[in-house]
Amino acid sequence: MDLVKNKQSGSTGTIDKSDTICIVGAGPAGLTMARSLLAKGIPFQVFEKHNDVGGIWDINNPGSPMYESAHFISSKYLSSYFDFPMPENYPDYPTNLQILKYHRDFAKTYNLYPLIQFNTSIKEIKEQDGCWIVETSSNEKYLFGGIVCASGITWSPNQPKLEGERNFTGKILHSVNYKSPALFHGKRVLIVGAGNSGCDIACDAGANAEQAFISVRRGYHFIPKHILGQPADVFGDGAHWIPNWVSQFVFGRLLKYLVGDLTKLGLPAPDHKIFETHPIINDQLIHNLRHGDVIAKPDIEKLEGDSVVFKDGSKEKIDIIILATGYNWSIPYMDSKYFEWKNGRPDLYLTLFNRNFENLYALGYMETDGGAYKMFDEMANLIASYIEAKRKNHPTYLRFANLIKTDRPLLNGKIQYLNTGRHSVYVNQVAYKNYRSKIQKKMGWLELKPGQFNFLKSPIVSSGTENRLPTSGISQ
Asked: What is the pLDDT of residues 53-76, one digit of tens each?
């Protein structure tokens, strides 16, 4: 197949790529989508606002929530891309720099770099007669046949207002702006929120601040990073054959034995069973609480001058408040009419397929209870299989299109997740895989198999600034 050439569309200056898929973002989701389309010979173009791949894992990427001490919260063993394991010399829980290198090695290995237009953000995408007009920051305008939104969910910080903050004499930052524990030296620091990032940052403060505090609104189950010498996810992965309610009972009892009663450390008791919310994979915070390097506090009542007043009536002088209060999901380059938003989350079939607009997909707009990258690969393979079926006018295209409109499966594995916006698109990894696999088998679309991407590893010959691509029908 020949390379797709850019075609000017009339006098509008629009570049006609109506046979091409536009991928927004070259982070983990965008990279795996690119590999899947490349393998099937489906033309695509990736736009990335930064100067390299890696998304949030590049601490120098403007708006990235990364900080110097960040590590993976799932282990390297269950968190790699399909057929591309993390290096053996990586620790069980790699650093952010190692994860960034891993993503860049992935892009180099599968020759994805020439297919990505860097330093280009998307200003606007809008539908036109079944295709999509894409306007970029370089004032180029394209007509694409499909869109895959893969730009991520941690770019728009959720920063709640605190009573009295206008007269607070200290500094208030969202965690997205936190990068180095040097900020904490000689300060009294309060972290608000006990998600995985909040716990990490509280540990940084515990080791570097004059005194660190963490304000926790509700109780959580804290899972140690290692259980009986194994990474926690590896330990749990061997028990997927056990019904979830049994796992909840057994693992809940095991955690009480391993971690103990956290209310003795000032943390509220969990108001839910284990696995009913996104897990907190952290035992270092427990260590800091037990040594007094971090002190647990309840929710904030108000700010008062140089102090914070908590809902239990206690009061602490605080120099820096870090709001580890999460992110608002957004797709800022598309009008809200293109996605049906519920509880701040896009409602998509299998978290991937837009129910109301043809040829509009999203990858990475979900949360789950384990490593996501291999899951992204399987999702990308499903999207690519659907696009391929449509292009070949295969009967399965219409069958699957009907499922997109009508099928609304429960993907919680019979676990009653908390009734919060965050958990409205939360999926149980095993339940999702089983359902996706069942649907894919009905369509006759192949599952991923080891070695199927090896042919993409053939070298790209460069001459000057021109990249020559394999004759795969892929648009540069």
From this structure: 999 999 999 999 999 999 998 999
Least confident window among 88-102, 140-154, 186-200, 415-429: 415-429
Residue with tokens 């509008």: 12
Instruction: Please give the angle made by the CA atoms of 250, 253 and 255, to the nearest 5 degrees.
Output: 110
Q: Which two tokens stand for residue 363?
A: 């990858």
Which parts of 142-231 fold into alpha helices (H)?
196-208
User: Which burial class, exposed, middle or buried, applies to 184 when counting CB atoms under 10 A from its CB (0-12, 13-18, 19+)?
Assistant: buried
How far are the Cα atoms of 33, 214, 373, 393, 460 from residue 379, in angstroms, in the given order?
8, 37, 10, 21, 27
* Range in 71-80, 236-245, 424-433 the model is least confident about: 236-245
pLDDT at 354 over 90: yes
Task: Using the structure block, give the residue that is written with the tokens 């291999």.
Answer: 374
Other Cβ atoms less than 10 A from the Cβ of 416: the count is 12
What DSSP string runs through 18-80? EEEEEEE--SHHHHHHHHHHHHHT--EEEE-SSSSS-GGG-TTSTT----TT-B-SS-TTSSS
End-to-end alpha-carbon separation of the chain, Å? 13
What's the chain's average pLDDT?
Answer: 88
What is the distance between the alpha carbons of residues 126 and 423, in angstroms, rounded to a whole number?
Answer: 29
Would you state the structure tokens that stand for residue 462, as one six-digit string? 């460069």
pLDDT at 254 over 80: no
Contact predicate 203/227, CB 8 Å: no
Percent of the chain predicted with pLDDT > 90: 72
DSSP structure class, residue 415:
-
Long-range contacts, 452-459 (Cβ 8 Å, 24+): 452/39, 452/83, 453/35, 453/39, 453/82, 453/83, 453/110, 455/39, 456/35, 456/38, 456/39, 456/110, 456/111, 457/109, 457/110, 457/111, 458/111, 459/111
Cα–Cα distance for residue pair 83/423, rounded to 1 Å: 30
